[in-house]
Amino acid sequence: MGVISLNGQTYVVGPIDMTWVPRQSPAYRTQGTQSRGNDPSMNHFLHRSFPWGIGWSRIKREIGRGVGGLLDSTCWTALGPVTLGKLQEVQSHAANADHWKKAVNFKSDLWGLFERDFSAANVTDIVSRKFGATSDDWTGGGQIRAANDGGDPNATGIRGFDLGVHKGSLFVLCSGAPLPAGATAEEFVYGVASSAAGATWADAGLIGWPDSATTNRYLTSTITRRNDFNDDMGRLLSFGNVLLAAIYRHPSSTDGTGLIEVLSSTDSGANWASDVTIPASDGPKAFVDWVTIGGVRSPVLVIPDGVYSIDYTNNTFALIYALDGDPNTGRWAEVGNDGSLYVGLGSGSILRLTIREADNLDVMVIGPPGDGLVTAKQGRANYILKTPSEWLLVAYGGHAASRNASIFMIDTSVILTDPETGKRFMPWHHMYQDGTANLDIVALAYSTEDDATPRLHFAVEGAAASVNSHIEEPFVNPKQSTTVKYQATSILRLPDDDLGDPQATTTILDSIVDADDLSVDTTGQYITLRYGLNGASDTTTTLGNFLSGIESLAFGASSQGVADSRIGINLLFTRDATNTNRPLLNEFGLEAYGFRPSLRRWSMRVDIKATAEGDSKPNKVANENLNETVIENLVAVAVSSTLVLFQDSEATPTTVRVRVPPDAPPVFHLEVIGSTDATRGYRTGTCDLVLEQAL
User: Which percentage of the chain shows pLDDT scores above 90?
Assistant: First the structure.
């Protein structure tokens, strides 16, 4: 017999059996989500595919937040197998046209609008260039407009604001409207030029156009002499038989009033009518063919203050949706293939405006998805481009130190819902990230012209010139082409994984991949596994390389595993010198075994009579009140809604918190003592008691 202390009371007990609290069934994760199941001998935490892009910083164990989304990636994840990012190829361009502003598909070729930096005492012109696939450069074309300095040390600067196609001709909205014969072009006035073939340009007729150099000087030298995100001054739109232009009367210009003027022409720019003027905090950001709030097709103008439908026949406009007024809001907004209007905000979010029926506007923030983008990718949308497929391409980020410009692919064919918050989002996939911080991608274009090879073109703005590049076969599945070119290295960074329980230490034993096209050694294609435990950097500790024949890597010395509650995985993809080679990852997983803290469990038999007669009781005699009190004290322990204190020996001076487990309630073995015809007597006997340690 022995004595224990329980809930402040002393009890006499028989032999005590001590064991351990049974573990709960561990979690089992599939594709980044989890559900409870049987307790297998090994837990497999699998990422079977990566279809939902990036933006999620953490996978949460019960709800699967992120639906398999990634924390970060420069890999290609959009089409199932994960591979290296596709290689961008630098395109040359003519030295006297440094900045690529916009490109359009015209008569089976891709034509671009180029402009120079302003430089005192030099002609500063704008030119057109045609992309040539055989030479991978911008060539051909011709001068659109030039400014003749006439010996003036303060040479004029000419800017191109938009390029479009209307009635089989190219049109450019620019600065530098023509003046009377013999005069130089005036840089502070808007103008329109056109070309039937792309090489030879002429000023449009411009009857009715505000082209007077003495009364309609709506631009300033700050605007006309540098591409610095202050050039959203004019936009063109071809709307059926009508060519429309939106120009900003800049409030800092000589004649400006802070209004946007919309003009229209039904004869290809020969004659113009002024339709409406709209108060605006900055210039027009986009001019698109969309619908009114009533669902009727209409020209739609996007300015920082709102989205407006334009009725050029009745000279009216109507607000569809108010915006925040940020000068970076709305830049190159685009109508996607799903019929929705996508508008970037200066805050970094992108809105999707959908008019399903008259007066029914649905507004959805499509991203950045999840918990947001990692620091290097944060920023705002500079350019939005619709492609012939479901992909909407967005030039995003840059603008500041530690920010790198990126191109994202947004899948407009699917809308997902965060199961935790109910927030809707579209998957974002990484396509390209520039290696130098604080630069901007200022233009995007898509072409299949010249040699029938699909290309995504983009321009990264530099200090004095834009670097023009393209990616061939941008939307081709890596398993369906042998000619796609790939970067030398890329990363795939998984969200921190708590392996089923954020409070439980887990032994992480093995990592596994299902991958194709791995080489036998690191002279070819391989995947390096880097990891960080419990919030540590995921780039400093390398476990090893996945190679052909080595598709599992063990953690810890002698494969004994490593123990922690959280792990971050960073996979580094590498190819050999041949840029069409690449490893392909179909699935990544971890094998781990989860442990609960070591919680004890005691089974014992309490002697109620001996407890009542113990040394602490008066006169050491049985007493019905004491026996009944012992029984009720045990019942109180069993039904307690809070934990009670327990000590089983002097060798355990610190008490532990315990409860009577719900699966093992106490069992009393009682008899009644001292019963007569007049009294019921009292109960005594034994109680089989189980106690379970709690956290």
Answer: 62
Asked if 459 and 441 touch (Cβ cutoff 8 Å), the reply is yes
pLDDT value of position 421: 78
Going by pLDDT thresholds of 50, 70 and 90, the confidence category of residue 117 is low
pTM (predicted TM-score): 0.85
> What domains lie within the chain, and their CATH numbers?
2-21+599-693 (no CATH), 42-85+491-594 (2.60.120), 87-284 (no CATH)
CB 299 within 8 A of CB 260: no
**Could you report how far apart the first and last alpha carbons of the chain are, in Å?**
29
Coil vs helix vs strand at 418: coil
pLDDT band at 231 (very low <50, low <70, confident <90, very high): confident
As a whole number, mean pLDDT of residues 74-82 equals 91
Q: For residue 675, give Cα distances in angstroms to 493, 608, 613, 681, 684.
A: 77, 18, 20, 4, 12
Helix (H) or strand (E) run with residue 264 in it: strand 259-265
Indicate left, alpha or beta for 511 from its phi (over 0: left) and psi (-120 to 50: alpha).
beta
Alpha carbon separation from 47 to 188, 405, 504 (Å, rounded): 58, 28, 21
- Whole-number pLDDT of residue 653: 56
Tell me the two tokens of residue 373.
């983008």
| Angstrom distance (rounded) from CA 474 to CA 486 | 11
203 Cβ neighbours under 8 A, 6+ residues apart: 145, 177, 178, 191, 192, 193
Asked if residue 368 has a cis previous peptide bond (ω within 30° of 0), the answer is: yes
Please state, in angstroms and rounded to a whole number, the distance separating the CA atoms of residues 461 and 405.
10
Maximum average pLDDT range among 187-191, 503-507, 584-588: 584-588
617-647 in b/e form (b: 16+ CB < 10 A) is: eeeeebebebbeebbebbeebbeeeeebebb
Cα–Cα distance between 377 and 397 in angstroms, integer?
A: 6
Mean pLDDT of the chain: 87
**Residue 468: exposure state from Cβ atoms within 10 A (0-12, 13-18, ≥19):** buried
C-alpha distances out from residue 607 to 1, 518, 671, Å: 9, 70, 12
Helix (H) / strand (E) containing 90: strand 89-91
Q: Per the structure block, which two tokens stand in for 594?
A: 């989860």
Residue with tokens 């202050």: 230
Distance CA 602, CA 648 (A): 9
Residue 534 phi, psi dihedral angles, 5° rounding: 50, 45
Report residue 689's pLDDT band, with 50, 70 and 90 as the boundaries.
very high
pLDDT-wise least confident of 86-90, 149-153, 270-274, 307-311: 149-153
